[in-house]
Amino acid sequence: MQIQRDVLYALLLRELSSRFGKSRGGFIWVLVEPIAHLLVPILIFGFLRNRLMPGVEYPVFLVYGFLPFLLFKAICLQIVDGVNSAQGLLSYRQVLLMDVFVAKAMAHCVIQAVVFVIVLTGLGMLGFDVLPGRPVELAGILALTAVLAFGLGVVFAAVTSLMPDTRPVIKVMFMPLYFISGILFPVSRFPDEWVRWLSVNPVLHLVELTRTMAVDGYQPMKYMSLTYPLALALGATLIGLMLYRLRYLTRVTQ
Amino acid sequence: MIRLDNVTKSYMTLGGRKVVFRNLSLDLPEGRNIGLIGRNGAGKSTLMRLLSAVDLPDSGKISTEGRVSWPVGLRGGMQKNLTGRDNVKFVCRMLGLRRQQMQEKIRYVEEFAEIGDYFDQPVSTYSSGMQARVAFGTSMAFDFDYYLIDEVMAVGDATFKRKSRKVFDERLQHSRVILVSHNMKLISRMCDFIVHLDHGQAMCYENVRKGIAAYQKAGGEP
Q1: Taking CA atoms, what residue in A is nearest to B90?
Q2: 3-state SS assignment for residue B146
Q3: In the structure, how many helices (H) and strands (E) does chain A have?
Q4: What is the largest distance, in Å, between two alpha-carbon atoms of chain A?
Q5: Which of A3-12, A51-60, B141-150 comes out lowest in average pLDDT?
Q6: Across the interface, do A92 and B71 touch by the CB < 8 Å criterion?
Q7: Which of B42, B101, B120, B185 could join B197 in a cystine, given CB atoms 3.0 to 4.6 angstroms apart?
Q8: Cα separation of B202 and A107, whole Å?
Q9: Minimal Cα distance from A94: which residue of B?
Q10: SS3 at position B90
Q11: Exposure string for B171-196, b = 16+ CB within 10 A, e = fewer
């Protein structure tokens, strides 16, 4: 499908250039968010680091928690918003809603990759050991994160098309998700019963898996599983594509 | 030749399912300029959305031969934080044009729109007239067999109107138009085939005057 490839290419470039903007300011702004995310907890909790995790530096721990979390959040929310923001684009008969979704997901993989390579390089220059121990597996986990975000994003998009009132709910969900995904603290320090409940959250598994692949000697939580987020990612994507096929995602026109 | 075969289209609303067309079949003959008329809510815009493939029918088939444009003067397709130039680039890339061809189209739109330096400013800084100029120019930069026009053709000041009419008349030498309008003067000037939509039914008229008469009898304004 030559047309589809052209459309995806055009959408991807459009997404990237509208994100980074024409000026350098756009790009700096993209970098500021994750750096702020990193700095605040480092300043507040930095002193705890040795007590919590012998052998693992806190900034490195944080970075590899934020990496999958921000990737997940960006793709998921962008796709939910995509239904509305793409309406104008869909007037071009060549553009399908799914093209917009795929382009958005790809664009955010690129953006997050660029941002984190820069952040990791920065940390590396500050003397932290940031090189991932198992880079191939790490890339696999991040790909899985992207697929899960994509699948859930499409499902949420269908839900919000059917019930527009749920839109803010889905956005608000990401706030607590930040706290229950074990980004700031290693959940293995929590009581066992809590951890069992927390491990319902697939993002927590992905965060722990990312750290396991990236940081040598990292002690993940007891219930960490690859099968769970993998099954969820495939299931969500399947259901999402099905809902898409059944055209649950078309908005009522005014 | 555009053919609708047994097309049903409905929309979900809070008040339940609203059926716009039920089992609509329609043949739009080749080589004719088609005027789509009907009262508000008769389904003109829905039919346009179906023809431009923005929306898909619930059931039935729509087959089009030749290239059908997006709605001419489409402004919703422009990304507001990108420049006019980047928006034209997007359309070019989407249609598979690269480098040389793309530069030609960009130059065409830039010259057509006549908005000067604004062409390299974000669209969000444009006045609505400037947006319309770029949007109309983008539509005119590409060759289609059918141009879809929904209502407003007249944008911008008198000079621009004259210019766009001239360019459009040129296009009509080898392309056809499907025009939705309440302006019967415009319809009779541009079209030679009328589709009158009323209560989900489509009546075709070879004779423009008869079509307009039927529309006015059904309660349309003169």
Answers
A1: A10
A2: strand
A3: 10, 0
A4: 59
A5: A51-60
A6: no
A7: B42
A8: 44
A9: B94
A10: helix
A11: beeebbbbbbbebbebbeebbebbbb
Residue with tokens 């920065």: A122
Q: Which residue of A has its CA nearest to B17?
A: A252
Which candidate in A2, A9, A14, A23 is best for mutational testing of the B interface (most B CBs within 10 A)? A14
Token pair 């609505």 in the structure block, residue: B128
A123 Cα distance to chain centroid: 21
Q: Which of A9, A18, A93 sits opposite B79 (nearest CB)?
A: A18
What integer pLDDT is reported at residue A39 of this predicted model?
82
Closest-CA distance of chain A to residue B209, Å:
31
Chain A residues within an 8 Å CB radius of B81: 18, 21
* pLDDT value of position A254: 30
Instruction: Tell me the C-alpha distance between A181 and A209, whole Å.
Output: 12
Report the C-alpha gap between B47 and B41 in whole angstroms.
Answer: 11
Quote the pLDDT of residue A250: 59
Task: With beta carbons under 8 A apart, name residues in chain A contacting B122.
Answer: 22
A11 in B contact zone (CB under 8 Å): yes
For A64, A85, B32, B89, B115, the CA distances from B128, given in Å and listed in that order, are 46, 19, 32, 20, 12
Residues of A with Cβ-Cβ distance to B79 under 8 angstroms: 14, 18
Question: Tokens for B57?
Answer: 């029918």
Residue numbers in A near B53 (CB within 8 A): 93
The stretch A34-51 carries a mean pLDDT of 74
**Closest residue in A to B50 (Cα–Cα):** A93
Reference B91, options B117, B69, B114; nearest CA is B69
pLDDT higher than 50, residue B178: yes
Interchain CB contact of A215 with B (< 8 Å):
no
Give me the numbers of helices (H) and strands (E) for chain B, helices first please.
7, 9
The sheet with strand B68-71 has its strands ordered as B68-71, B146-150, B176-180, B34-38, B193-198, B201-205
CB–CB of A253 and B95 under 8 A? no
pLDDT of A238 > 90? The answer is yes
Task: List residues in chain B touching A: CB distance below 8 A.
Answer: 11-13, 45-46, 49, 52-56, 68, 70-71, 74-79, 81-83, 86, 89-96, 122
Residue pair B21/B8 in contact (Cβ under 8 Å)? The answer is yes
Of A193 and A142, which is predicted with more confidence? Answer: A142
Q: Say whether pLDDT at A252 is over 50.
A: no
CB A222 within 8 A of CB A199: no
Question: How many other CB atoms are found less than 10 A from the CB of residue A173?
Answer: 11
**Interface contact A253-B81, CB threshold 8 A:** no
- Average pLDDT of span A238-248: 86
